Amino acid sequence: MPFSLSSFLSGLTLLDLCAAVLCTVLVVLMIQAGIMDTPVHRSSHTRPTPKGGGIGIIGAFLLCALPSLFLKGQPILNPSVIGMLAGVILLAAVSWLDDLYSFRARYKLGAQFMAAFLAAAGTGASLPMMGIFILGAVFITNALNFIDGINGLASGTMMIAAALLASAGIQPVIFVLFAVCLAAFLPWNFPKARIFMGDVGSQAGALVIAWGAMQPLHTSALIVLAVLSGVLWDVLFTLARRARAGDRLTEAHRGHLYQLAIRSGLPMPLVTTVYWGFALWGAAACLANEWLVTALLILLPQLCWTGYICTRARARVQDRW
C-alpha cells in the first residue's frame, strides 16, 4: 500500500494557495463576528471563545474544489465529487444553524444520513455497499464531532488524514485542497484556541474524509479506518464503557479517553499530538499489506493508551467518569 510524495504533489494547484488565504480571511471574519462558544460543565475550555472557524475551512474548500479539478484537466461534473460536495453543503448548513439554534438530535441525525446518502449516491456502488458507506459515514461524522473537544485534535487529525489519502493516490486534488484548508485553520486553534471550528468543520469535514473510504481503490476504506483509528477507538471504547455502566449514550459527558487524559492532568497539546501520532501510526501500519497484521499493529498502541489513561483516571479523577 504505497504512500508517495509524488502522489501528493500531483494534487497541488495554484488554487491551494488561494484556498489558504480565503480560509484565513473567513476565520478572521468569524472571530470578528463574535459568535461565542460559552463553556458548560462538560467543556474543556474555561472562557467564552468564538466559534464558526469551520466556515473558513469548508467555505474555502467548497469554493476551490471544482476549479482545482478544472485546472488539473479533470472532469468537474464527476458524479462522485458532485455528490460529496452536495452532502458537505447540506451538512455544513444544518450544522451552522444547529450551532446557532440547537436542533433536536433526530433532526441532526436525519441531516447526517441525507448528507451521507448524497456522498455515496455518486459512487456507483451497489445498493448493499451504499448502505455500508452511509452507515460508515454517519459513524465517522459523529466520531469526529465527539472528539472535537480540545484544541487541534479533530482538525489536526483530519488534516493528516487528508494528506495521507492524497499521498495514497486517492483523489489527490480534492484531498490536498482539504488538507491545505485545515492547515490554514490549525494555527488559529492550536495550541491556543482563538476560535473553534464548531460542528460546521467537524461534521462536514468528517464527511469529506468518510467519502475517501468510498473511492474505488480497494485500499481506500482500510486507509481511512487506519488513519482515524485513534478517534474511532476512543469513541467505540467510550460507548461500550458507558453502555456497560448503564449510562444514556445520547447524554453529553466528559468520559472520552482524551477528556480523561486532560482531567487526569496531562497537558492538552500533548494529548492532541498523541492522537496525531495515532493517525500517522495507522498509515504506517497499512504498509504491512496484510489486514490482520495491520489490525494488530493499530490495536496495540490503543490498548496501551487506554490502560494508561484509565489507570491515571482512577488515581487522579475524583468525580464520576
Care to describe what's here?
It is found in: Cell membrane. The structure is a single chain. The protein is mainly α. It has one domain. It has 14 helices and two strands. The chain has a two-stranded antiparallel sheet. The mean pLDDT is 93.
* Rg on CA atoms, Å: 19 Å
Oligomer: single chain
Mean pLDDT: 93
Low-confidence stretches: none
Please state the structural category: mainly alpha
Largest beta-sheet characterization: 2 strands, antiparallel
Strand proportion, as a percent range, falls in under 5%
**Count of domains:** 1
Our measurement of the CA-to-CA distance between the termini, rounded to an integer number of angstroms, reads 39 Å
Strand order of the largest sheet: 1-2
Q: Helix count, per DSSP?
A: 14
Per DSSP E runs of 2 or more residues, the count of β-strands stands at 2
Order of helices and strands: HHEEHHHHHHHHHHHH
Main location: membrane
InterPro entries: Glycosyl_transferase_4
Binding site for Mg(2+): 145, 199
Pfam family, one: Glycos_transf_4
